[in-house]
Amino acid sequence: MALTKKELREIESLVCAAKKGDADAFGEIYDKFVVTIYRYIYYRVSKSEAEDLTETVFLRAWEKRKSYSKQKGNSFNSWIFRIAHNAVVDHYRANSKNEVVELTENIPLEKAGMDPVQNLENKFEQAKLTLALRKLPELQQQVVILKFVNGFENEEIAEIIEKSVGAVRVIQFRALNQLKTLLDRKEKRLSTSSPLRQGFGGQQA
After folding, report:
1. Hey, what domains does the chain have and what are their CATH numbers?
2. Cα 48 off chain centre by
3. Cα distance from N-terminal residue to C-terminal residue, the chain
4. 90-121 tens-digit pLDDT
5. pTM, whole model, 2 decimals?
6. 71 has which bridge partners?
């Protein structure tokens, strides 16, 4: 999700106005970031909590807007994602990590007009991915979601998590290996023990 220089200038201009109390300017900032912030949070908590936490992020951003200062390695993009990260951490501290994944019609990235059966299969795969992601160490979760859900470049991720680009690559490599192991293990369990799958497999025409 690399922003162009023009987009960065526009955001900084909006932030400058928002810091002076311009609610309309902050509304534009909200419109620009709400989808990516929501996607970042979605895979780490339940759907209803993701919606609440997304609103919490922007409330905190509004309250803390005067503390933001554009410095080298501290763009508004990385600043607001750090607020999102802290909101998720606070949520984990206050609640158990053992949350139920909701299979809803609003799972991110679902394609419009998709076949209903394909939709169901996609939701099932999304649920498995969500469960597996939540078993990763917190920093690995963060890197995988920023990279593959939000589409950030490694340089942007490094800025957000305050690590080197090399460290981001290492974290990403370890996370993907662990995620593959978790998903393979889950797939084996499902293929051998799921009554639903056995029913379909043994159904006669």
Report:
1. 1-100 (1.10.1740.10), 114-192 (1.10.10.10)
2. 14
3. 49
4. 888 887 544 433 333 333 444 445 454 454 45
5. 0.69
6. 74
